[in-house]
Amino acid sequence: MMTKYILNSGGIKREPRLKKLYHQEIVQGLGNAPKFLLCNFAQGREYWDTKFLGYCEAIREDMPEGVTASFELAVPATFAEQCKRADVIYVHGGDDHLLRYWMSRFDVPELFTGKVVAGNSAGSDLLVKHHWSNDWRECGDGLGILPIKFIPHFESATDPADQRGPADWQAGYAELAAYGDTSLPIYALHEGEFAVFIDDTEQKLVLRKAVQ
Fold it and tell me: Alpha-carbon distance 41 to 74, whole Å?
């Protein structure tokens, strides 16, 4: 049983070409009616429903000709059953700690087996061994499903309202390189970029492509 993981750096709305490539990569080989489970656990509950509508539209507009996707909003109470029904589990970005809070309740690797799993920013952080977050400006641990280190939004502009001033991306990269398992490769992706990993039936995880 093959599981496909697609790590996106985030910021795809600012990169329309990469956004379209990313969404089309997600549904490649899934037929003309792929079923999406959109997981907004990294965001406050009050935003889930509104964000869901916007995410549905953003994905729908990028679908290849003849492909009509359907969408379901993930909720913790039924998440395990929802994963069984889905072809695609799409974990959106937000806060790493909030996402881990919800996901700690589930056997995530089991739920994701045999699915296309798309991560965006914090959603990608969840899947890797270690990451560096620009929001927190510190290293953290993901679930370790993918044996790599990850930096989302690499070298992106800092929000002028951020009281800490501009992020030092090179310092963050160096900090992550020295953190945890130092043998692991670092994927520092600029906004919109994504990497595709395939886990086949022999449990051999391979990088299939990186799109910039």
Answer: 8
Residue 40: other Cβ atoms inside 10 A: 25
Q: Domain residue spans in the chain?
A: 3-211
- The C-alpha atoms of residue 132 and residue 150 are separated, in whole angstroms, by 7
User: Distance between CA 199 and CA 46 in Å, rounded?
Assistant: 35
Structural tokens at position 167: 């992020």
CATH node for 3-211: 3.40.50.880
Residue 135 confidence (pLDDT) = 93
How many other CB atoms are there within 10 angstroms of residue 179's CB atom?
18
pLDDT given for residue 203 in this prediction: 44
- What percent of the chain stands above pLDDT 70? 94
Phi, psi of 32, rounded to the nearest 5 degrees: -100, 5
Bridging pattern class, strands 35-39 and 70-73: parallel
Locus of tokens 């963050």: 172
Q: Is the whole model's pTM more than 0.70, yes or no?
A: yes
Chain mean position to CA 156: 17
